[in-house]
Amino acid sequence: MAENQIVTIPVRLDEKTFRRFAHFDMLRLRRRWVRPLVFALILCAFAAVALATHLPQSGMIAAVLLVVGLGLPVVYIGMFLSQVNMQAERWKLGKGRAVYTVKLSGEGFQVISDRKQENTGIIPWEKAAHAFRRKDCIYLYATPVKAFLLPSGQADMPDETVWTVIEDGIGVRKCNSSGGKGK
Question: Residue 183: what pLDDT?
């Protein structure tokens, strides 16, 4: 890519892409499933200890511990999925909606919102946190908790060029292309 060339990506986001990102971000990247799993294992272990004592009422105590230990993680995951669905509905993503435009250049990237009259200014590549290339989308993290989704086929350049620009900008070690096309 030439130094002064700009890659423009008018991002049109749909529910499916948003849900995939939410699952990736919370469950794979942030590993938010670990604490509920540890909680469930601890309470199941206490239930087993209660049953092993063979004392009166130990069966009821074990049952309560199992219900709470298995129920709360199920509720946690259910609430997460419900919140993702509500957010997709609130943003009216349905079959797709223009949400922002990302411009990649040699200096960094700029995000211009289609919903509000604002833009981020240019975010220098060295300040970007990391990027992940998944099957149908690139997740470009400006900070560890704020990502911009770049769905495949929406840029004014081929997807390989977009990924190369990002790798050149933030560095290969901050990029992960597992699940990328051709990988």
Answer: 38
Looking only at the bridges linking them, the beta strands covering 175-176 and 130-133 are: parallel
Read off the tokens for 34: 């670990």
Structure-token match 């990736």, residue found? 24
Whether residue 118 is found in the same domain as residue 160: yes
Q: Which domain holds residue 67?
A: 27-90
Q: How far is CA 62 from the centre of its chain?
A: 36
Domain count, the chain: 2
Q: Enter the pTM of the model.
A: 0.85
Residue where the block lists tokens 């130094």: 3
Distance in angstroms (rounded) separating the CA atoms of residues 20 and 56:
48
Gap between the Cα atoms of 166 and 176, Å rounded: 11
DSSP state of 112: E
DSSP SS3 for 51: helix
Quick: pLDDT tens for 69-97. 999 999 999 999 999 999 999 989 988 99
Q: What is the pLDDT of residues 123-148, one digit of tens each?
A: 999 999 999 999 899 999 999 999 99
Could you tell me the two tokens for 8? 């423009």
